Amino acid sequence: MGHETEEGGGGPARRVVLGLGAAAAFAALPGVGARAAEGDVRARRTPLDVVAENALPGAADWRITRTGSARAVEGFAERVSVLAGQPLGLRVSTSSASYTVSAYRMGWYGGRRARLVWRSGALPGVRQPGAAMDGATRMARAPWKRTALIDTTGWPEGGYLLRLDTTDGRAQRFVPVTVRSPEVVGRTVLVNAVATWQAYNRWGGADLYKGKTGKKGSRALKVSFDRPYANAQGAGQFLVYEAPLIALAEELGLPLAYTTGVDVALDPQAVAGASAVVSLGHDEYWSPEQRLHVTSARDAGSNLAVLGANCCYRRIRFEDSPVGPDRVAVCYKDDYAEDPGFRRGLPATNDFRRGPDPDPESALLGVIYAGYPVDAPYVVTNPGHWLLAGTGARAGDAFEHLVGVEFDRVNLAHPTPRPLEILSRSPVVCKGRPSYADTAYVTLPGGAAVFATGTMRWVEALDASGPAGGRANHGLDARAAHFTRTVTANVLRAFADGPAGFDRPAEDNVADPLGTAPAP
Q: What is the pLDDT at residue 520?
C-alpha cells in the first residue's frame, strides 16, 4: 500500500509508491525503469539553482549514529542514478520488523552538509538471503527481492544518501544514489566514481583486490552493483573522497550538474558542452567509453579537474546483471587473457597503460599514476601561479601528509600534452624508491585546461580544519585545509567560466619545474 511522506525544507507532503505489492504494480507501468522514457523526464526539469537549493534548511541529524550488527539493516539501489521523476527500486534486508528510508541530498546547507528531501513511512522488514558468489569469477551479489519503489518526482539533482533506519532504533545504514542532471551544457559536472567504489567493496567476500583468503588469487574478476557497500556505513567511498568537494562546490554557488561514471560511459552526450568535468578524490576504474567521452569533451573545450590521484588507471567493461543493464564491472587485470569478453574481441580489462592496446592515462590527464603507498609533505614550487592566489604560500612551503596514499607525476616517457606547468613537485619515497608527486596545469588547442592535483588526499584535506563538519585524517591540519580549499575554489571558479586555456594558457616549465635555471 502507499504511504504518506514528508518532504524536507517545508515542501508539501506527497504520496509515493512503496512496499512489496505496490512496487510490483508500479513496475508494470509503461516505461518504468527504461531509458526510453528519459526524454519526457528531461523535458519537465529545469536546471538546478545551487544558491537557492543551499538556502533551504539543512539537516543536522543526517549522520549515522547506530550501526548495529553487520546485517541488522542494509540495502542497495537498483540503479546508480535516476533522473528526477523516475522510480527508484530498493532492495533492503533487515532483521527488524520494519524500517524507514530518508533521502538526504548532500551539499553545503550552511555547513550542515545535507538536506532531508523525503522520508517514507514504516516499511515491512524482511531478512533476505546471504551473498551468492559466482564460482568462476568470485563475483558476489545479493540475490534479493525488491522491497520498495520510490517516486523521485521533485527531487533536486545531486548526490544523495538514502538512510535506512530500523524502527526499533537498533541500526542505520546508507544507500548512495545520484539524481543526475538533465542538462550539463555550460555547467560544472561532478562525476561520482561509482565503479571505483564498487571495486573496493568486499561485501559478500571479495572485491577486485582480495577475496575470502585475503590473497590476490582469491580476488574477484567481476564486481556487482547488486549488493550493499560493506564500508563506510554503506556509503562506499562517497563520504571520504567526494562529499567534501561537493560541499565546497555548492558553497561557492557555481552552476553544477551531477552524473556518474557509468552514465558518462553510456551516453556520448553526458558531459558534452560542460564548462568543466570534475573527477573526484578516487576515480580509478574507467571504461574505454567513459574515457572517450571525457576526452571528446575536453578536446571540444570542456575543462577537466582531477582532484585526486590514480585516475583513469584501470580499464573496465560493464555487463548486465539480473537486476538491470550495466550493473557488473569487469576487470581481469593481469589475467585479462582469461576474460571471455577479451576472447570475443573486446578490449582487455587491465591497466590502460599496458598491452595489448596501451593507452596511458597521461594522454588525457597530463600526469600518470606513479605508486602506492606514500605519506609525504606537499611542497610548493610555483607560488606565483594564479591558481595559488590567496593561499599565502611561498616557494618551499610544505604541507605535512598532503601527498598520499597514492600519487601521480609528470613522466615524459609516456604521452603527455603540452604546454604543461608544474605547480608543485613533492619528493616522496615509495617502497624504498625515491620519486616525486606533481601538481600540474595543462592547456589544450581547443581552449580547455586540465588541473591535476597528483595526490589522493586532496579532497580529504578540504575538511581537515574541522569546523565545516569534517574531521582531520592522516595528520592533515588547518593549513592544508586552507591551502586546498583556496586552490580548489580558484580552479572551480575559473573552469566554470568556460575554456580556461584561452585566457590562462599554461607556461611550460617541465624542463625546469623548480625554477632554478638562470634568467636569459
A: 54
